[in-house]
Design a protein that fits this description.
By secondary structure, the chain is an alpha/beta fold. It contains 22 helices and 13 strands. Helix 12 packs across helix 13, helix 15 crosses helix 16 and helix 21 runs antiparallel to helix 22. Among the domains are: 93 residues, Gyrase A, domain 2; 106 residues, no CATH class; 148 residues, Isoleucyl-tRNA Synthetase, Domain 1, CATH 1.10.730.10. The strands form 4 sheets. Strands 5-4-9-10 form a 4-stranded parallel beta sheet. It is globular and about 80 Å long. A hairpin with a 4-residue loop joins strand 11 and strand 12. The protein binds arginine (ARG). Arginine binds next to loops.
Length: 586
């Protein structure tokens, strides 16, 4: 079977394309280039997938209704297409149930694209995500960036892209002057060793408060950062190195629990020795100007504040380092797309960067995208409304504590629902952490995320645990059938796919995997995949309510087991791209 016979959407699109092109040729017109998107018709009786003919009719000088009829005549029924049904301007197609079952189940179990990984496509994607600030609190925006960015990285990898996932750590900048002063004043070695993030946060907050009464602290901080920027091996440098490496170690804990990986950890400090060259290159292009002693790229024509390259005191800023990073990434990764997964409060910053690239005449300017997202909201019981910031006040969270809280919640549910579950601790960890990830990726990223513990940990509703439970249910059926290794050995029995006509709902949902990946990547929207996983879980649950697997007679039993194995595997694949684990039991 070829890729198109595994991905039936693609198969139909190719057939329709061929028919459209034959028509264009007869009319002496250019071949069709518009892509073909199929969607299930409103009434499922009309068919499984349909094409709206409007966009194609105009160019062919015909009406959508006529075009639809003509296409129907030209596309022959075959082993995949059971019926073609032109309904007004819609071309509806019903798939052969046997072909649907065979294509889907074999496609999944033999790991063919789109279910398994795609062939490399040569496209290079750079994704900048997570990027917390060292020695400053990991805030909720960083949690979202981490989860969304890691999901995008996996989705691009699955679909054959060369991906560079980058943690652009905030490990440089004027705030390090403050952190150095705070450490000198209130730093405690023992606290730093045992309670790294919290301690650094505490002294940073204390700095903020005390510097209001003691303005000399700010002067000390300024000097400290200047000393750091000299690049010399001085006290400031050694302290910075120490705090950086301890923080980086502390981040590894939550990253590991979330299953988040990076291909490069190149933070802002990585560009320290590259900024002069960057500034020089920008100056050479003639787009830098002096403004009140600072070197800037003027953006007043675009109605935006200038992008600062170097402040009047000679120091560089966040934007300077981002520009240096752009030069570096262009040179080293020659990217087709560069995505910044960063909160919407930095919209202006990324607009400025893009404009600077345009002024520099980079064709890549159009390939640079700010993938932004909404806030995380908590319920405020006193005010009876959803609010930005955590229950503990402020917008600082300690990621490990949030993950722990989720795991504790799941522990309680397991104790109540399934106290004899083996490996309870491991499963509570998998389910608790995944619940947070799932909750984050459930809705369009631009929407705010509500941190509703009861809701997101619940085994019912559109939640991580609910979807994971569907997978565990399938795994348990396979175990009971003796397929300890899930699909192992399934193909030894000759599967009679014609017996799976009653599984068409599940199979049709599975067939949406390919088009869903496509849509998710077009918009950098992992929630599309989350949505499909919810629908797959629902259709599995309802299939299992109506059909017995283990007690069915042969050859139905083997065919249903193959379906169960394929559904289980696709669910695990889809969830894995999101960063959600698939426990065998729960
Ligand atoms: N460290 C920044 C922050 O916490 C985010 C960095 C995003 N990436 C970038 N290349 N600017 O706000």
């Amino acid at each position: 079977m070829s890729r198109s016979q595994t991905d039936l959407n693609l198969y139909l699109a190719e057939k329709i394309h061929a028919a459209l092109n034959a028509l264009s040729q007869e009319k002496g017109q250019e071949p069709q280039t518009r892509s073909i998107t199929l969607a299930p018709p409103k009434d499922e009786k009309l068919g499984d997938l349909g094409l709206a003919c409007f966009p194609f009719a105009k160019g062919l000088g015909t009406s959508p209704v006529d075009l639809c009829r003509e296409l129907a005549e030209r596309i022959p029924v075959d082993e995949v297409i059971e019926r073609i049904n032109p309904t007004g301007p819609f071309l509806n197609i019903r798939l052969s149930r046997e072909a649907l079952a065979r294509a889907t189940i074999e496609g999944v179990l033999l790991d063919r694209a789109p279910f398994g990984p795609f062939e490399p496509n040569g496209k290079k994607i750079v994704i900048d995500y997570s990027s917390p600030n060292i020695a400053k609190p990991f805030h909720l925006g960083h949690l979202r960036s981490t989860v969304i960015g890691a999901a995008l990285r996996r989705l691009y990898l699955h679909t054959g892209h060369e991906v560079h996932g980058i943690n652009h750590l905030g490990d440089w900048g004027a705030q390090f002057g403050k952190i150095i002063v705070a450490w000198r004043e209130w730093g405690d070695e023992a606290e730093l060793a045992t309670n790294t993030m919290r301690h650094l946060f505490d002294i940073y907050v204390r700095y903020g408060k005390e510097s209001q009464e003691r303005p000399e602290l700010d002067e000390q901080a300024r000097v400290a950062f200047q000393n750091l920027e000299t690049g010399e091996d001085n006290e400031e440098r050694r302290l910075w190195e120490k705090l950086r490496s301890i923080s980086l170690k502390a981040f590894q804990g939550p990253y590991g629990r979330l299953g988040v990986e990076f291909d490069h950890v190149t933070g802002e400090s990585f560009y320290e020795d590259k900024m002069d060259a960057t500034i020089q290159a920008i100056e050479e292009k003639g787009v830098a100007t002096l403004s009140e002693g600072a070197l800037v790229v003027d953006l007043s024509d675009e109605g935006l504040p200038p992008c600062i390259l170097r402040k009047s005191d000679g120091t560089t800023i966040y934007a300077t380092r981002d520009l240096a990073a752009l030069f570096y990434r262009r040179e080293n990764y020659s990217f087709d797309r560069l995505l910044y997964v960063v909160g919407q409060e930095q919209k202006l910053h990324f607009r400025q960067l893009k404009l600077v690239l345009q002024k520099l005449g980079w064709p890549e300017a159009d390939q640079v995208e700010h993938v932004d997202f909404g806030l995380i909201l908590f319920w405020d019981e006193a005010e009876k409304r959803w609010k930005k910031g955590t229950t503990r006040g402020g917008n600082a969270i300690f990621l490990d504590e949030v993950l722990d809280e989720a795991v504790e919640g799941v522990r309680k549910i397991i104790a109540e629902k399934n106290p004899d579950l083996p490996d309870k601790e491991k499963i509570a960890e998998m389910v608790g952490v995944s619940a947070i990830v799932f909750n984050d990726l459930k809705n369009e990223r631009i929407k705010d995320v509500k941190f509703d513990w009861d809701r997101m940990l619940s085994f019912e509703g559109e939640t991580g645990p609910y979807v994971q439970y569907a997978g565990a249910r399938l795994a348990s059926i396979l175990r009971k059938a003796g397929h300890g290794n899930l699909e192992e050995g399934l193909f030894e029995s000759n599967i009679d796919y014609s017996t799976l006509a009653d599984a068409d709902k599940v199979l049709l949902v599975m067939q949406e995997f390919g088009p869903t990946l496509q849509r998710a990547l077009d918009r950098n929207e992992p929630s599309m995949v989350t949505g499909l996983m919810i629908r797959l879980a629902k259709s599995i649950h309802s299939y299992l309510r109506e059909h017995h697997v283990l007690s069915a007679e042969e050859p139905v039993r083997s065919a249903r087991l193959a379906l169960v194995a394929a559904a289980r595997r696709l669910l695990a694949t889809g969830l894995a791209t999101l960063g959600v684990a698939s426990p065998q039991e729960m």
